[in-house]
Amino acid sequence: MSAFLVVGLGNPGPQYAATRHNVGFEVVDLLADRAGASFKRHRSGAEIAEVHLGMPPAPRAVLAKPQSFMNVSGGPTKALAGYFDVPPEHIIVIHDELDLPLGSIRLKLGGGDNGHNGLKSITKALGTRDYLRVRIGIGRPPGRQDPADFVLRPFAASERAEAGVVLEEAADAVEVLVRDGLAVAQNQVHSR
């Protein structure tokens, strides 16, 4: 069976570490911690960790954090998919979603990019929209704040506890998605 490629979207560098836009990085970090794995630099331009998600005989997965910045994540994603021979239906992209309230997670296969430049880049590089997405709600910016500014800010102190819970739930969702498939994972995650 083909491995899964789990791509957490984010921006490299300490100034972006705890921002809303980096929830994808945080989820793959959690998955690596659970598997006792550490990341190493790969020639694709991403940091990767090869793991088994869950108890043996759990499926093999390559966790990835593209180091090319969010808006050009497609190149490293395509390079990794080719290197590890992962078909699009086994690629899982974890990303922030402005149109979902904080604390919500939605799973889907394919669809549009909804203005998300990381997804635009991946879709263009892969030549298909038919990859799995784990959408993590970060909420809309307050008032007239620019969404581009909003996503690059850390969660407010009052939101951080809820954000921590949703990141753990997103990691759980990825494990269920890999182990049991999209329909089962959607039933579990969307019913919360």
From TrEMBL:
Gene: pth
Catalysed transformations (reactions): an N-acyl-L-alpha-aminoacyl-tRNA + H2O = an N-acyl-L-amino acid + a tRNA + H(+)
Protein name in UniProt: Peptidyl-tRNA hydrolase
Chain positions of site Discriminates between blocked and unblocked aminoacyl-tRNA: N11
CDD domains in UniProt: PTH
Enzyme class: hydrolase
Keyword RNA-binding: yes
Subcellular location, principal: cytoplasm
Highest taxon of source: Bacteria
Active site annotation, chain numbering: H21 (proton acceptor)
Site (Stabilizes the basic form of H active site to accept a proton): D96
Keyword Manganese in record: no
GO BP annotations, alphabetical order: protein quality control for misfolded or incompletely synthesized proteins; rescue of stalled ribosome
Family: Belongs to the PTH family.
